[in-house]
Protein 1
Amino acid sequence: MTIRILPEGVINRIAAGEVVERPASVVKELVENAIDAGARSIEISLRDGGRAFIAVVDDGIGMTKEEMALAIERHATSKLPGDDLEHIATLGFRGEALPSIASVARVVITSRPRGATEGWSLAIDGGRKGAVAPVAHAFGTRVEVRDLFFATPARLKFLKSNRTELDQAEDMVARLAMARPEIGFALVDDSRPVFKLPAARSGTAAGRLDRLGAILGREFADNAVAIDAVREGYRLTGYAGLPTLNRRNSLHQYLFVNGRPVKDRLLFGAVRGAYVDLLASDRHPMVALFLEVPATDVDVNVHPAKTEVRFRDAGLVRGLIVSALKHALAGAGHRASTTGGRAALDALRPGMMRLGATRSAPLPGLPMGAAPGAPRSGFAEAAAAYHAPLPDLAAPPAAPAHAPADERPQDFPLGAARAQVHATYVVAETADGLVVVDQHAAHERLVYERMKKAMAAQGVARQCLLIPAVVELDPAQAARVAALAPELAEFGLVVEAFGPGAVVVREVPALLGDVDAIALVKDLADELAEFDQAGSLKERLEDVCSTMACHGSVRAGRKLNVTEMNALLREMEVTPHSGQCNHGRPTYVELKLADIEKLFGRR
């Protein structure tokens, strides 16, 4: 075969295959052009999920007659002043979007620059250009795309349903809208409004949170912590959801680099690393993070769709994200998401109650007309009397059945203990409602944080067993545990080989109290079986601590007296991440008095 130059039409269709995968790709390119044109309002209209019709209208700077003729030529762009590929400050710069789209669809471009007395229109049909003609038009640009892929039927038949294509386009517009709260966005499908996002009127941080709340829902806005960290010229801002606000997949993780929405493994991995000891392995946090880096330190030209990036210093980026998220989540203290309380209240509403359910009597100590008070601002002052570890919970409960007179609900964020239900849940009265605490989950987190702190300081204190415990395992498990004995000793667990299929436990972490050493080692053996054999036990600090903490925590079914319950609440208030257990489940649910009164018709 002889080498030849492909026809221009074939070249454009090949380029279109790289840039235009589906209707959402067209929407992305056109909306990015509108943003780069300085638009403050962008309207997107679709029909049949975008396969029949796409229109993007903006109020940007517009194009002159001469610029319009050039806009549909390959590699023509206004976004590379000085032809400098090292300083990309716009969303689009390759100059392939419009000609690629026009080669596989019927396109009409209408535009009028500010200050001009008339607009101009240009039609392109499958790559065949018409003449630029004058037309009446408002300031800005309108691009209409009809019959997408009519010129490439093979690509058309691989499109999904209209609903799926609309969902993809909606997600794309939402991502771009998150990064630009100062721009108003409206999306319409088949004359049905999908969403309308007005331009933010407040400052940057408040406006961004309002925009995120409008897209991700109020529960995200109500249960997210602000992120703002700087390291060596790199800045990370945005919001991260509390660990108890999690999802089954990572679709609700939105990451942006210099205002560009990206899907990057490095960034997703950093987010997962920051939440590693706060969530179960099959749960994912909700985040919206905006990374600003020097243009020379990031390559945005890795992929034609520009959704992947490459950093000059990937380690710096990962370290910034992990440390910023960990610091912000630790600063949230005992805070847990409000979704648990909301779900509980929804389950109790009359329309959602099961037939035959009876109304329970009010809990003692919770007068319905109690006036709310203001909790003290500092947790340290509130817990001053409870600076010591929790009481010995192996001892029998003391006699008092009510809180001391000076234990007032309004004095503490998590209130004063009033009762224990089913020997599992602690009920506390707060200034404006009540809190229900899962005693096992809460204490598990407290023990876990103590162990991490001890490991970081001088190691975990150990206590000898009066009678060493022999743990029978299968030979492979016993060999694995014995091989890691030196590292387990740093965690306070001293084990030795005891024949081919057993180990003997001589010391256990003092923090765990009266622990079942045999059950603990068996669980650890199962945990170690899943470790990477090339990895170190210290690299799996969170997993080991979590397993030990679970065995050292107060079990469900253990009756607590009021002093013990209040000590648990006070330590939760001063312990980071105490709002969720080691698996990301909430340790407590808060119910506001106003919502409870609504259930009983008092409001």
Protein 2
Amino acid sequence: MSRIFRGVFIVWTMLRFGLDELVLSSFEKPWIRLLTRVVSLGRNLKAPRGERLRQALEQLGPIFVKFGQVLSTRRDLLPPDIADELARLQDRVPPFESAVAVAIIEKAFGRPLNKIFESFEHTPVASASIAQVHFATLPGGREVAVKVLRPNMVGAFRKDLALMRMMAGWVERASADGKRLKPREVVAEFDKYLHDELDLLREASNAAQLRRNMQSLNLVLIPEMYWDYCMPDVMVMQRMDGVPIGQTQRLRDAGVDMKKLARDGVTIFFTQVFRDGFFHADMHPGNIQVSLAAATFGRYISLDFGIVGTLTEVDKEYLAQNFSAFFQRDYKRVAELHIESGWVPAATRVDELEAAIRACCEPMFDRPLKELSLGLVLMRLFQTSRRFQVEIQPQLVLLQKTLLNIEGLGRELDPDLDLWSTAKPFLERWMLEQVGPEKLLAQLKAEAPTYAKLLPTLPRLLAQFLKASPGPSRRQIEELLLEQKRTNKLLQSLIYGGLGFVLGLMVMQFIVRIRVF
């Protein structure tokens, strides 16, 4: 019965904000288009379609708000006006009762609240679509932040997701853009994101990994997780004190170097992407603060680690080479990279894809380099690739969304920020690592345990082979000795060749450093 009531409320909300007109207008059947005009009579639908969609998702509750946030990252699938409006969805939603939060904490730990914390602030300091945060003090005086999952999220999530799948199936079958928009795949992607965020233990592990990766950089603070107090629905972490990144005037008044802050933000992001392949993928202003404490003055503070992106070596190679080729206006190489990656059908003509990419990207070079947007470059490449039936990888779309956030934030802090000059050292370092002797030595070091285990067994294996074989004749012995001489010469050639190869790589590294960029 509750599912029926929920379905009725969803339908009523869709009618109230005119989403039925928005959906029906995309159908290709003439009689459905006529129905669109009929159902629109008597309703005020003057507001833009993106605004109406955003308001409807806010009305439908936290899960639909989160769905809108995830949907806004798929700019490769959505019209720009809808993507821009969904990007405005705010993380802050009304908090749930503190008594409910206390009950969840006590159930998770099996103890009364006063046996867990010395003190606990019942008024939440932050409230988001998935969880809310309270400040508290652990025994011994450590100040912490307690993140508590919203109640009944799993059950509500399953019900709403079932309805989303059903509606996505309708849209995909009936809409002219259904196959291109892939609504069922988008819902499946949302399912994955939400499952990750509903497990606070997983979020704590993400935070611990980022903290470990970033420790040597000394540019960003990430809260320590207190594992004895981390559960799937409750997470206790170090309390962080900072100024929200959006309060720029307050930061300037405190003496923060805004230009350095902008550069540091880009450095943090590209370090996570090109060095670690593990990056914070939800870096909107609500999740970023700046420390004003004397010991850590001017450093970033990162919060909320429910969504992280990961990149393989193949992904990093694709990105670095695409950026490098783009800024050299080598559009043929960009096209070749798309085909080599396997994301474009093998039958695609390089010259046709090259022409499309040139038409998309060349106008951008009419502006100063510092005004070029790497996020916009990725977006346009994805949009162009879509015409050639490319299947965009979700991790790259997540990267593009985060890059747009970083660019917008960086240029708000410093309008003159040249993102390319900041990114260039990372791309240069990556390319040198791929062709330099360090890469060769790293691969040899990685394989060394295998060789070390194999070499001592070779005499025994050879002896077993000789025992199992009939005795060699004089001619076979002579051939064996001759083969040994050949092997010795070959080993000498390999040694000298290897030394020459390493020297050649060092020369190549020097040339690449001078010429590639």
